[in-house]
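Troubleshooting log. The previous run stalled partway through. Resubmitting the same four chains, unchanged.
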Amino acid sequence: MSAARLDPIDRKILAELQADGRMTNVELAKRVGISAPPCLRRVRTLEEAGYIKGYHAEVDSRELGFEVQVYAMVGLQSQAESDLSEFEARCRDWPLVRECNMLNGEVDFILKCVAPDLSTFQTFLTGDLLKAPNVASVKTSLVIRSAKDEPGVPFEVLEERLSRMA
Amino acid sequence: MSAARLDPIDRKILAELQADGRMTNVELAKRVGISAPPCLRRVRTLEEAGYIKGYHAEVDSRELGFEVQVYAMVGLQSQAESDLSEFEARCRDWPLVRECNMLNGEVDFILKCVAPDLSTFQTFLTGDLLKAPNVASVKTSLVIRSAKDEPGVPFEVLEERLSRMA
DNA sequence: CGTGAAACCGTCGCCCC
DNA sequence: GGGGCGACGGTTTCACG
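Second attempt completed without errors. Output:
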């Protein structure tokens, strides 16, 4: 596991910045128990090593007028690698598609889509997704309500596992 | 739509902070074309009004040792409101469950789970999820690979729609 | 919304362990 | 190697026009 290269302070930094990405460096340093300069050096190292891929404001999608969230299960005709990656590239170009994951089992991909309203989504569904080459089947499920939407990873679980291994 | 209360500068602020949540306020002000003090006032207002729910570092889950992502489709025995919200509350307590959305159609909930390894997930699956009261069926799909994972909403689509309405 | 000023913070060089 | 101290320049954040 690559996380083995990180010491407890690095993991604490990552957990703190995942919880509050706009925290000032001095506040972060205080929380992880070192002074500001080495703390900032660690953050820069974590960014350059790719452990931190970016920082994002979490916006309220419904307040902003994005009232529709849909999961789309997509089956392809060909699962040749070139066809898979061609479909993935298409997904990256569609702004409505926020997540695209390849799955095992009967369905090939699951897409999470966000749209301002149903008609915008249906225009995308019939105009883009269903017309894309190699798409064999699409089953969509509307999100009725969202109970939990936490970005990132559960650091608690990692710490628990590391302490079990020690 | 509540987004109508926001002017173009506010929407630009939200889009910029979604793309880079650690941008300094002066940089943000420059990009949206106003000076720093009113820009900061707008950000604070957006935060207090709930348009911005938080800021998060995006961490590389695989680099950190979270090698397993699973979608779990959950069917319940009872769909009474009290039973639905009881299940949702349980999901909020499970750190492995990052997203929990209620769906229309044959399945009741879709859960996105993140775990360090398969055995951690299976411990959760058999020990917690399948044993939870009211859970009738669980179908899991492993994520083979992730092609896109963008947090947030597609502001481009919103701007396009607003300009069509104007 | 902009200007100016004061406090704070990010950042660097240097020294220490 | 990493951590701490001090100082400079930029930033945040006031009060005010």
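Takeaways: The longest helix of chain B spans residues 36-48. The longest strand of chain B covers residues 135-149.
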